[in-house]
Design brief:
220 residues, alpha/beta, 7 helices, 10 strands, 33% helix, binds adenosine-5'-triphosphate, binds magnesium ion
Length: 220
């Protein structure tokens, strides 16, 4: 379970350009839920997702993953949670364009102690789950937007996280490809994974169990 209590996020704190991007966010997300976070551009969706993913900090409030208070952890423990529990699909994919699909999916596995051959097998399984195994050796730079999105999802699931966070996973895709990507998230959700999708597309949001709307850093 993810629990946020009165979370405030301030960018450039104490400087002239100080900006409060989150102004007291409260919610709970149960294990196995499929949740959409919606809101206008600049509302604070990515900021919120980055805090949920433990890749960004917050100024005040409390964020718990199960019983663990995220704020008190040191870097090593945070990295451990990120690696084991959370799979993140970034808004711009954040893939290494010159690398092949499998090389990208192998990246999060580099921190594990598994043998090289085992890692390849695990990466291929993740690519297979998103139906990209046949293109494993193709450079990411030669893929379509939908294919890149699939590889980004494969990379997010390769460590078998229980939580998957996706920032605008259908933002750059046509309707048909969006539907395919959503089908993939539904399959992962049916396997018991908690999934949180940031989107500005209400049709995508309606396919989730619950919609959390944020506006100007607050829940509405
Ligand atoms: N690193 C940063 N430094 C300063 N301000 C930032 C930073 N990142 C985001 N902001 C500001 O915080 C606000 C929320 O940004 P955020 O990226 O969370 O919005 P968003 O809802 O994801 O928007 P979009 O739909 O365009 O992706 C915006 O006003 C943005 O300008
Ligand atoms: Mg964003």
């Amino acid at each position: 379970m993810l629990t946020l209590k009165n979370i405030h996020k301030i960018y450039n704190k104490g400087k002239a350009n100080e900006f409060e991007a989150l102004k007291g966010i409260d919610f709970k997300i149960d294990d196995g839920e499929l949740v959409a976070i919606i809101g206008k551009s600049g509302a604070g969706k990515s900021t919120l997702l980055h805090i949920l993913a433990c890749i960004d900090s917050y100024e005040s409030g409390e964020y718990h993953i199960d019983d663990t208070l995220v704020k008190k952890l040191n870097e090593r423990k945070l990295a451990d949670i990120r690696n084991r529990k959370i799979g993140m699909v970034m808004q711009d994919f954040a893939l290494v364009e010159d690398f092949s699909c499998i090389e990208n999916v192998l990246l999060p596995l580099d921190f594990s102690h598994k043998k090289g051959a085992d890692k390849k097998e695990i990466a291929m399984k993740a690519l297979k789950a998103v139906e990209m195994d046949s293109m494993a050796k193709k450079p990411v730079s030669k893929l379509s937007g939908g294919q890149k999105q699939r590889v980004a999802i494969a990379r997010a699931i390769v460590n078998k996280p229980s939580i998957i966070l996706a920032d605008e996973p259908t933002g750059a895709l046509d309707t048909k490809t969006s539907a395919e990507i959503m089908k993939l998230f539904h399959t992962l959700n049916n396997q018991g994974k908690t999934i949180i999708i940031v989107t500005h597309d209400l049709e995508i949001a309606k396919q989730c169990d619950r919609i959390i709307e944020i506006s100007d850093g607050k829940i509405v």
